[in-house]
TrEMBL record:
The keyword Secreted does not apply. The keyword Nucleotide-binding applies. Its main location: membrane. It comes from Noviherbaspirillum suwonense. It is found in: Membrane. The chain crosses the membrane at residues 20-41, 168-187. One of its GO terms (molecular function) is kinase activity. SMART domains: HATPase_c (SM00387), HisKA (SM00388). This is histidine kinase.
């Protein structure tokens, strides 16, 4: 039984707008809740102070009224305590008036016959009446003949506080939709440039690499848009370079392939063994040229001038060149050239693999353009803080006006008569750029030929 592989789970996508809305609403609710609790506690404490102040003022007012009424009516201690119905509401406020002898002289309806507090009590206190908690206040008049004891129900106070809290929470609940709508509008307004940029990019075709508009975008979005525009520039440059490279490569390959086909056709019609050998030699030259051109194209395609080699490290330039000297000497002997090497130890930052490609192209160009019995000079030395590589030849050289153009692909001098692909110096230029080095073309020794000078960055151990 074949076991079906478990599907791979892609990372879940998420919305910036929804996340911001959720976080802002949550933050608003948390802040509002904390603020409401703090406000309620502070308001309750303040209301208790106001209630106590009101209770104290009521007590003094009732004490004055009771003193005046007792004197006017000449109430004797033997009379039962008088009850007032209009002075206060017994549901919320109870009071008692006691004389100095501890006789209850006056109370309102609902007040007990027992004192709220002791005979000598003064100030605020708390008492339980019929299972309910009451806040009390006691005070004597100036002559200390009468004492007022007033009680206010805690339930009454709690009821007022709860009504305030109810109104507060009701107002907040009514405001929540308004706040949610406002937050949604603000988030949408802030994200509008981002959505507009995303929509603009989504409408692009693969070949549309114009810059994304940054006008009106917020400061926080500018780095992203600039990075996208920079990426578009790189992609556009790479696309143009590869398109040009493909067209030029097809054009250059057409010539050697046509020569191969012509030589094959002529070879079939050879009339003698000598002609056959001559056509086979020409065919061999065409194949070599095609092989060299394909190799150069593959090398150039692998190079990225905007990326430094990953293995860039410190190396001795003279030792690295010395490893290839035997091959260069054999090549010089075959071409009947004089190869002079002057290699002084100097350290610099190199990628060994790409440097060998660079050196092989420079020396190969110098030997191919140098006439028989000419001289090719290869040297390296320290030049200030840099390492200097020089390759000089005694060939025809390059006119000053052409020295920048020869670094372009497939550009060759028309008057040299030497076969080539026009890619060697382009490869060299790319490798030089990848090393962070610089290259210059000058006149060769004694004003003839060509001198190529490359300055490499010094290694960490190089002398200052």
């Amino acid at each position: 039984m074949t076991k079906t592989p478990a599907p791979s789970h892609a990372p879940a996508s998420w919305s910036v707008r929804r996340a911001m809305l959720a976080m802002l609403l949550l933050l608003t609710l948390v802040v509002w809740s904390i603020s409401s609790v703090v406000l309620y506690v502070e308001t309750r404490q303040e209301s208790q102070r106001l209630f106590d102040q009101s209770l104290e003022e009521t007590a003094h007012l009732l004490l004055v009224l009771a003193d005046h009424e007792i004197e006017e009516l000449a109430v004797t201690p033997s009379h039962p305590p008088m009850e007032g119905h209009d002075v206060a509401d017994g549901r919320y406020l109870l009071f008692q008036v006691w004389d100095a002898n501890g006789v209850l002289r006056y109370k309102n309806k609902g007040a007990p016959d027992q004192p709220f507090a002791g005979a000598g009590a003064a100030g605020f206190g708390n008492v339980t009446i019929a299972g309910d908690n009451w806040r009390t206040y006691s005070a004597w008049n100036a002559s200390r003949r009468l004492q007022i004891q007033v009680g206010e129900s805690d339930a009454h106070r709690q009821d007022i506080s709860e009504r305030f809290a109810y109104k507060l929470y009701l107002f907040a609940l009514l405001m929540l939709p308004v706040m949610a709508t406002g937050i949604w509008w603000i988030v949408s307004r802030v994200l509008r440039p981002l959505m507009a940029s995303a929509e603009e990019v989504s409408r692009r075709t693969p070949n549309d690499l114009r810059k994304v508009k940054t006008d009106g975008a917020p400061v926080e979005l500018q780095p992203l848009l600039q990075a996208i525009n920079h990426l578009f520039e790189q992609v556009s440059s790479t696309f143009e370079r590869e398109t040009r490279f493909t067209a030029d490569a097809a054009h250059e390959l057409r010539t050697p392939l046509a020569a191969i086909k012509t030589n094959l056709q002529v070879l079939h019609g050879a009339r003698s063994e000598e002609e056959r050998r001559e056509f086979i030699a020409a065919l061999d030259v065409s194949v070599d040229r095609s092989t060299r051109l394909v190799g150069q194209l593959m090398t150039l395609a692998r190079l990225d001038p905007q990326q430094r080699p990953a293995a860039l490290g410190e190396a001795d330039l003279a030792a690295t060149i010395g490893q290839q000297m035997p091959e260069f000497r054999r090549q010089a002997e075959q071409l009947q050239l004089h190869l002079v090497a002057d290699l002084a130890p100097v350290r610099c930052l190199l990628d060994p693999d790409s440097f060998r490609v660079l050196l092989r192209n420079l020396v190969d160009n110098a030997m191919r353009y140098t006439p028989r019995h000419g001289t090719v000079r290869l040297s390296c030395r320290a030049d200030g803080r840099h390492a200097l590589l020089c390759v000089a030849d005694s060939g025809p050289g390059i006119p000053a006006g052409m020295r920048e153009r020869v670094f372009d692909r497939f550009v060759r001098l028309s008057n040299t008569g030497t076969p080539g692909s026009g890619l060697g110096l382009s490869i060299v230029k790319n490798i030089v750029a990848a090393h962070g080095a610089s290259i210059a073309l000058n006149d060769g020794p004694d004003g003839c030929g060509l001198l190529v000078e490359i300055r490499f960055a010094p290694g960490p151990g190089a002398a200052g």
